Amino acid sequence: MCDTCGCNITPGNRHLAEQPIAQGETAVSVLQGLLSENDRIAMHNREHLGRHGVVALNLMSSPGSGKTALLERTIEALAGRWRIAVIEGDLETENDAQRIRAKGVEAIQITTGTACHLDAHMVHQALHQLDLAQLDLLFIENVGNLVCPASFDLGQHANITLLSVTEGDDKPAKYPVIFRAAELVLLSKSDLLPYMEEFSPARARQAVRQLAIDPPIIQLSAKNGDGIDDWLDWLEGQMRQHRPAPGQFRAIATSASSILK
Amino acid sequence: MHELSVCRGLLQQVADIAATHQQPQVSRIQLRIGPLAGVEPQLLQQAFTIARQGSVAEQAELAIEAAPLIVHCPDCGQDSPASLPRLDCGHCGQQQTQLKSGDELLLLSIAFPSDAHQEQQDV
Ligand SMILES: Nc1nc2c(ncn2[C@@H]2O[C@H](COP(=O)(O)OP(=O)(O)OP(=O)(O)O)[C@@H](O)[C@H]2O)c(=O)[nH]1
Ligand SMILES: [Mg+2]
Ligand SMILES: [Zn+2]
Ligand SMILES: [Zn+2]
Ligand SMILES: [Zn+2]
Question: Which has the closest alpha carbon to A147: B48, B62, B5?
Fold first, then answer.
């Protein structure tokens, strides 16, 4: 199979590739994802992580939904349980990385400048600054943005989309792509619900499920600890699911072949 | 806006394919984009007019066709067209459906001017 000669065209998708050809043109069918270069590097990132048995989780949300606050609380709760590092994506400043380092955990800051999302290439560079052999769990905090991060696979094992209760329960309907990308949805800042009559957790849940997906949805607060146990349970589930059992490491290390030349 | 990054990736792909076919120029790029792909066709068109400068696609037309939103219903087993933000089953009203089409982000084909070499010499 190659991506350029058209041999990936099947009876099911042939009609898509056969376009009318204008006079004086020769057309070639391609039928490739538009982000195939990003996806290739994302696969390479996944190999890096897999070789060391590191589970990577990508957090996405609007600016200020509580990604860093949740990470701070999670690091405290998991102290001594898993070896953690964080990759922080921000347009500017090292603030979030410093907040993480203050908790005694290594943080790599990626400042994206004008780019409103992380891509697989930026994460790859950050991975090479980390000693993956010394890690179990890697959090990637994406740039605060409810649109752009959704399009870029980073090599993570799961996506987490946060919706804070101050943002409104209609956000899943307005930003369907980023919620559809989520393996887990968090309704954050639940301690503020008493002051947010307009926000109905039931409506938020329904808005997510009406996007033809059915991810787990956990309501939590990094401030008062509400729902944090459910979140930690979900994390343990991810560790069980994505980490090879001890002894399998060697097999993976030898079978993994680098796809970046 | 991430459409510019998406567009740069696209142009790299197109340049690679053109090189494989030993073509110096591309005349048309055909995409298929669904409403849940996370890419706005209009913004992509705008990004394209900027990003194509100096590339093999400098003269190319970017044609984007829309993929329809279609859901499959596990209850009644039927497919139906749907519209955002509620992807309910059009037959029985079931709210928990599966997406069958609508998140495509595909490069379908590219076309080269048949007489590209000729034109190059004329210029
Ligand atoms: N009441 C309350 N406030 C919270 C909670 N979590 C975060 N906050 C506050 O919300 C603000 C933003 O929190 P951050 O953790 O910085 O949010 P973020 O998503 O990392 O923000 P960006 O990285 O800038 O996108 C801060 O003032 C936090 O103190 C929470 O659970 N409850
Ligand atoms: Mg933050
Ligand atoms: Zn590498
Ligand atoms: Zn953007
Ligand atoms: Zn139905």
Answer: B5
Query: Quick check: A103 and A72 in contact, CB under 8 A?
Result: yes
Q: Does residue A73's CB lie within 6 angstroms of at least one atom of ligand 1?
A: no
Residue B44, both tokens: 């992509």
Q: What is the mean pLDDT of residues A146-161?
A: 96
Distance between CA B115 and CA B33 in Å, rounded?
30
Distance A63 CA to ligand 2 centre (A): 7
Residue type, B114: S
How many domains in chain A?
A: 1
Q: What is the DSSP letter of A244?
A: P
> What residue spans define the domains of chain B?
2-114
Instruction: For the domain made up of B2-114, give the CATH fold.
Output: hypothetical protein PF0899 fold (3.30.2320)
Q: Report pTM.
A: 0.88
Arithmetic mean of pLDDT, B34-52? 96
Cα–Cα distance between B29 and B117 in angstroms, integer? Answer: 19
Helix A120-127 vs helix A36-51: crossing angle, to nearest 10: 30
- Tokens 């393996």 belong to residue: A183
The CATH number covering residue A99 comes to 3.40.50.300
| B71 burial via Cβ count (<10 Å: 0-12, 13-18, 19+) | buried
How far apart are alpha carbons A181 and A179 in whole angstroms? 5
Question: How distant, in Å, are the alpha carbons of A52, A93, A148, A177, B93 from that of A153?
Answer: 20, 24, 11, 13, 33
Q: Average of pLDDT values for A37-60?
A: 97
B28 touches chain A (CB under 8 A): yes
A245 vs B: CB within 8 A? no
pLDDT at A83: 97
What percent helix, strand, coil does chain B show, rounded to 5? 30, 25, 45
For atom 12 of ligand 1, the residue with the nearest CA is A64
Q: Which domain holds residue A213?
A: 14-244
Is the torsion defined by CA of A201, A206, A208, A209 positive or negative?
A: positive
